[in-house]
Design brief:
By secondary structure, the protein is α+β, with helices and mostly antiparallel strands. It is about 25% helix and about 25% strand. It is globular and about 70 Å long.
Length: about 450
């Protein structure tokens, strides 16, 4: 484990408002823990920043000492890019302010904020912006990679609703980027990840959502999954943008509306969200009930913020996680067959295969409008291996890789960058497609030495 010069550490501590945590400090072990329990990295310094000045000082120290530099927001990234060995971590987790202007329908969000922070503040005014599906996810990483969730068919990706950002560059300068100011940088951060600097403020457009929405689950036996998914494929082609329906293949959690005999058995779950009035929603989802003979369902009006937390118990921190993901233009028969086949041999009770539906507003944006360009992806299939004990690493990872290969023959070839694991750097260019060349040029301008490289890296050309 690398030890930094004591003089440098003391000078840095005196220069910032936040904390400088090094190995041996009481807070160190907790501070280096992140969501994915498979990640065990030991940085030389964790800088818990409280504002732009702290971030600038941390960047300057990393450059001075030639340290690897990682940036932590919510710490939820599957690849573990929030931590590094023997380097400096800019930890933004204490910067969680969310300021809502309900008249302008805008929210200014600091980079340590979690989805739950934004939902709580915005829902006080019946407003929301498209975010993810796990309330403990960090807003910063989600946004910089694209961001999608239950609102995306109606209101687009998270980046489609980004109005402006404040960025601290590799040279320690503060830049504001928007459609009218530093437009190249604004284009790049909307999907280009943390490659161009540390974003210290996000400004989002908000929409009328909630406070109550129609939402819930229908749960069918896994034996019916092939038939359910074929009907699902046809149903989503014509359903309204107010409606979003995903599909999850996994073992049944102990949900109270399911018979105990079903708990732990293979199932296909249809999570459902409808953003219009309840009566219209119930009519819209009625065909879903006829896809098969369900084990049970739980549907009704509930607070939007509560629905955003509904999957938190299945996605808590500390478990070991490994993902493999594909973008899909449609669900072909072969894809369905392969997905169901691997769902029938899950290596742990926490593994799952989920199909997130995009389409709608997401696919109406031009491919070159911003760095996120996978506008032909109607669906994202994520093969999520999750387990508790390191002795199960090999079978769980092998299952995910085998399932990924089996369904990959029928994918678009692109990938959602936030779902890439640490060893998948070769897929970064595929994630950006035709936009990759422009991203490299912008990287050359803002970070020619690749200081910000502990991410899904866009390498400069020089």
């Amino acid at each position: 484990m690398k030890t930094l010069p004591g003089k440098s550490i003391e000078q840095f501590r005196g220069a910032i408002r936040g904390q400088a945590i090094v190995p041996g400090d009481p807070e160190y072990e907790q501070a280096r823990q992140i969501w994915n329990g498979s990640i065990d990295r030991k940085p030389a310094l964790i800088a818990r920043c409280l504002g732009n000045a702290d971030v600038m000082a941390a960047i300057a120290l990393a450059r001075e000492l030639k340290l690897p530099l990682a940036v932590r927001g919510g710490g939820h990234n599957i690849a573990g890019n929030a931590m590094c060995d023997d380097g400096l971590v800019i930890d933004l987790s204490l910067m969680r302010s969310v300021r809502v202007d309900p008249d302008a329908r805008l929210a200014r969000v600091e980079p340590g904020a979690l989805l739950s922070d934004v939902d709580q503040e915005c829902q006080a005014y019946g407003l929301a912006t498209p975010l993810g599906i796990n309330s403990t996810t960090g807003v910063a990483g989600l946004t910089l990679g694209g961001g999608f969730g239950w609102l995306s068919r109606k209101h687009g990706m998270t980046v489609d609703n980004l109005v402006s950002v404040e960025v601290i560059t590799a040279e320690g300068r503060r830049e504001v980027a928007s459609a009218g100011q530093n437009p190249d940088l604004f284009w790049a951060v909307r999907g280009g990840g943390g490659n161009f600097g540390v974003v210290t403020m996000f400004e989002f457009k908000l929409h009328r959502v909630g406070p109550e929405i129609l939402s819930g689950l229908i749960v069918f036996p896994l034996e019916q999954a092939n038939a359910v998914l074929r009907q699902y494929r046809e149903f989503v082609k014509t359903m309204p943008e107010d409606l979003n329906v995903w599909a999850v293949l996994r073992k049944a959690p102990p949900l109270p509306f399911l018979p105990e005999s079903v708990h732990g058995k293979g199932v296909i779950i249809l999570p459902i969200v409808y953003l219009g009035d309840t009566e219209s929603g119930l009519r819209a989802i009625e065909p879903l009930r006829k896809f098969g003979k369900a084990h049970g369902e739980h549907l009704g009006s509930m607070p939007y913020a509560a629905w955003q937390r509904a999957f938190d118990p299945l996605l808590g921190p500390g478990a070991r996680n490994y993902w493999k993901s594909h973008n899909l233009a449609t669900l072909k028969d072969e894809t369905i067959d392969a997905g169901v086949q691997y769902a029938a041999k899950l290596p742990s009770g926490e593994c799952e295969i989920f199909i997130g539906l995009l389409g709608g507003a997401v696919c109406k944006i031009p491919v070159n409008a911003m760095a996120y360009g996978a506008r032909d992806a109607e669906l994202v299939m994520n093969i999520h291996a999750r387990w508790q004990d390191a002795k199960d690493d090999k079978p769980c990872i092998a299952w995910a890789r085998e399932a990924f290969d089996a369904v990959g023959r029928h994918a678009t070839g692109s990938v959602y960058v936030n779902f890439l694991t640490a060893e998948e750097g070769a897929r970064v260019s595929a994630a950006y497609g035709l936009n990759h060349a422009r991203l490299v040029k912008i990287k050359d301008h803002y970070d020619p030495t690749n200081l910000f490289r502990l991410n899904q890296n866009i390498r400069p050309s020089v």
